[in-house]
Amino acid sequence: MFPQHFSDWLQQFVPLELYQALFALLADKPWYVVDKYQQVKYCSPGLLQLLGYETDEFLVQRVAPLGLELDFKGLKTTSSATVSNAEGISISVAKTTSWLSGQDAEIIAGICLLTPRVDSSKEPSKTIHKPNKDNFHGIISRSPAMHAVFQIIENAAATTATVLVRGESGSGKELVARAIHQLSTRNSGPFLAINCAALSSSLLESELFGHVRGAFTGAVKDHSGLFQRANGGTLFLDEVAELPLELQAKLLRVLQERNYIPVGGDRSINVDVRIVAATHRSLREQVRLGEFREDLMYRLRVVPIFIPPLRERREDINLLLWHFIRLHNAENFRRIEKIDPAAMQILLDYAWPGNVRELHNVVEYAFAVGRGTVLRSAELPPEFRELPRSPELDDKPLALLSPEQEADAIRAALSRYQGKLNLAANALGMSRATFWRKRKLYGL
Questions:
Q1: What dotted CATH number matches 312-385?
Q2: pLDDT at residue 166 is higher than 80
Q3: Topology at the third CATH level for domain 391-441
Q4: Over the stretch 232-279, which tens digit does the pLDDT of each residue have?
Q5: How far, CA to CA in Å, does 13 sit from each of 9, 16, 19, 246?
């Protein structure tokens, strides 16, 4: 690669010192080194500046979710690509790649230089970029229903209106609240959150509105409540339907008058706080049952946002699976590169009553109990490996079923897995040959 006289001259230098000098010279350029497992081993300050990452934060990332992966073919290449920065914004770049080989001539690392591309119709210093449509302020989705939610979030964030987020447990209500805060003019202020179902009435009142010294036994000093601490920012009230009736009146006063009196106090405190509330219940139904104030419902429900459950946006299951897998791959305990088709079919067919939170827990379970680069159905929680049975089967082992019951179980497995014999056989604990023979026996 170098002229012989230059190669000979380089022998007098300690290699590490030479590398360090070169690295320092090229510090402002966006470049990085990855090993053959696509793990970042070094990144320049210029790359961190381009992508908006801190060093420690960036080095735990796998390159795939950022668009930095390299094709280990051993050829120096320059290609167009799109990479994602820390905020999920895409940046158009040219990637120039070179390679490092080990003693046996096997390629063991790649070095890549990024050159941001510019739009010739605009100022040359401006980088072309567009938001990552699948990642909206930490909410991962490509569902049209969720993209409609994203638009409502953007529109609502531009106002001062109170927002009520409705969605099932685990669907990401707090992420919606955080997105509203980040997109609003209050994003430089605090974002505080509290679960209204997690505390008793007295503790919740003290936590929300604060108390003065001597207000009750143990109140040895004044305590600032969440409303006071969130002044100038956003307060997220999760499970607001569980708020006791006596506190609902006090919350209504804050929303109407923009002031409140701490527990045991005699003077009101003015506050400027935006409320984003969330619930998995219907507030209208709670009002009908006499458990929620109708006037407060209307104050909270100025802009209602409904989050569809995961079972209604199945196109997100695969996207979310790989999002969480990449997060856990970065921990370097186990690296999953593939999902076995049988496991994927089970995950796609599951109803996900716990929504996105449950899906994340399933991935975490698989990383804890399994090994290797393939996620298999045996690494899923037990409930994912149990085929739903008819009530008349009474959870009997297949060996104890009558021919009619066994035929019903085979028919149910074929229906659930859409005629895929391997998946249906695995679900029933049979070999493919046994499943085929019994299927033929029962004329299914």
A1: 1.10.8.60
A2: yes
A3: Arc Repressor Mutant, subunit A (1.10.10)
A4: 999 999 999 999 998 999 999 999 988 888 887 778 888 899 999 999
A5: 8, 9, 10, 77
Report which of residues 400 and 90 the model is more confident about.
90
Q: Provide CB contacts within 8 A for 210, sequence distance 6+.
A: 222, 223, 224, 225, 227, 228, 262, 263, 269
Residue 385 has pLDDT above 70, yes or no: no
Fold exhibited by the domain 4-131: Beta-Lactamase (3.30.450)
**Number of residues assigned to the chain:** 444
Q: Residues of CATH 3.40.50.300 domain(s) within the chain? A: 136-306
Q: Which CATH architecture has domain 136-306?
A: 3-Layer(aba) Sandwich (3.40)
> Where exactly does CATH 1.10.10 map onto the chain?
391-441
